[in-house]
Design the sequence.
């Protein structure tokens, strides 16, 4: 399949939010009502102006938005002042899953992380998504660390 990977635009935000809501966990977190809550657009503006953030839109050959992910580049002192890349919010449109698009998206993300000088690409995945764990393992990711999160009261999680 001929895919285009590009920076997301403000006009893409409703479609991206719909993608984020297309699973059992996303349905609990996202709000797809029209008009879309302004918080999504404020978040996009913050992401868009940060050179260490890349919100990626995936288009099919007809120009339809069918996938997304966010890459964050984290500079830090360890690894002699290294950079690590973090991938988040990976989604492929429901009717496009199982066609190898996710794998193509990850191959692109891996190449992009290398291009930006990252020494590793990391991600977290919810333990309630065992199919995602298998997908990431197939791509070469390994569960080398135990991840932990602290959710703050008043924020959806």
Sequence:
């Amino acid at each position: 399949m001929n895919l285009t990977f590009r920076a997301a635009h403000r006009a893409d935000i409703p479609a991206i939010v719909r993608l984020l809501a297309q699973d059992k966990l996303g349905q609990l977190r996202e709000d797809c009502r029209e008009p879309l809550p302004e918080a999504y657009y404020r978040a996009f503006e913050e992401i868009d102006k940060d050179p260490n953030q890349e919100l990626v839109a995936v288009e099919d050959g007809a120009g339809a938005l069918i996938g997304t992910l966010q890459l964050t580049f984290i500079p830090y002192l360890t690894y002699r002042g290294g950079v690590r890349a973090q991938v988040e919010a990976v989604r492929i449109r429901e009717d496009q899953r199982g066609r190898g698009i996710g794998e193509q998206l990850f191959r692109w993300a891996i190449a992009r992380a290398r291009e930006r000088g990252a020494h590793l690409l990391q991600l977290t995945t919810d333990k309630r998504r065992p199919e995602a764990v298998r997908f990431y393992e197939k791509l070469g990711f390994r569960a080398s660390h135990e991840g932990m999160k602290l959710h703050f009261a008043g924020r959806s999680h």
User: Anything to note?
Assistant: The chain has a mean pLDDT of 94.
